């Protein structure tokens, strides 16, 4: 993350996997952000134990409750973050939370399609809307005219599984709802980039590589890298290839 200078960042789905890896990276930077907001569904629960341990050591880490499928929870999270920031804006919103169902074309369902789309696509849309005022504030407060992660940005954690041009690992798992949700997330990112550019907010979709997590498969599968080695820990992201 050398070269990145952010005052504040929010990571969704921060209690495990890539989200937790990102939080650790931010906290370990030579110049760590003044505020690292780690959003998760149940900040006091067992699944957030590692975040709680980190928060006891790092006063700049704030755990925020967030259910990305619930508009009220998203608004409440934005209000909380705004309170912590006082008058300043949020530099970086990382929409990382996501789910996958390994359903095939034959057994995909209305319920799963809806749940996966709501989490992976609608969540980032609503988060972008709710945090836009804080992102705009950060952009307005930046001396730089160029779009950048250090100024104000939305990073949507996509997947090459959503690529239409190269349908990645079809034989490994069809995961139809997941692929569709990430393809739609890529288009959402394009729409956000067109709509929010005028406010000085960079919008990027990122494929983190194959990472050993609950979703990416750990245990028996010897594929992927650990969250600490994921290329998404390598800044700057501005230069990265956007997904189709
Ligand atoms: P994990 O399953 O390890 O973590 C997913 C995170 O999202 C968890 O913190 C989970 O919370 C959270 N989450 C899920 N649903 C919600 C919700 N409704 N509200 C709030 N938080 C929620 O996945 P990864 O870390 O592997 O994946 C992170 C992102 O990276 C995802 O968007 C995924 O699609 C993407 N990605 C991952 C790849 C990989 O190889 N791992 C490859 C390509 C993309 P909880 O623990 O409480 O369930």
UniProtKB/TrEMBL annotation:
Provide GO CC annotations from the record.
cytoplasm
UniProt-listed SUPFAM superfamilies: NAD(P)-binding Rossmann-fold domains
Similarity section: Belongs to the short-chain dehydrogenases/reductases (SDR) family.
The species this protein was found in: Strix occidentalis caurina (northern spotted owl)
Q: Which CDD domains match?
A: carb_red_sniffer_like_SDR_c
Pfam families per UniProt = adh_short
Superkingdom in the source lineage: Eukaryota
Q: What is this protein called?
A: C-factor-like
Q: Kindly give the InterPro entries that the UniProt entry links to this protein.
A: Fungal_SecMetab_SDRs, NAD(P)-bd_dom_sf, SDR_fam
List the Gene Ontology MF annotations in alphabetical order: oxidoreductase activity
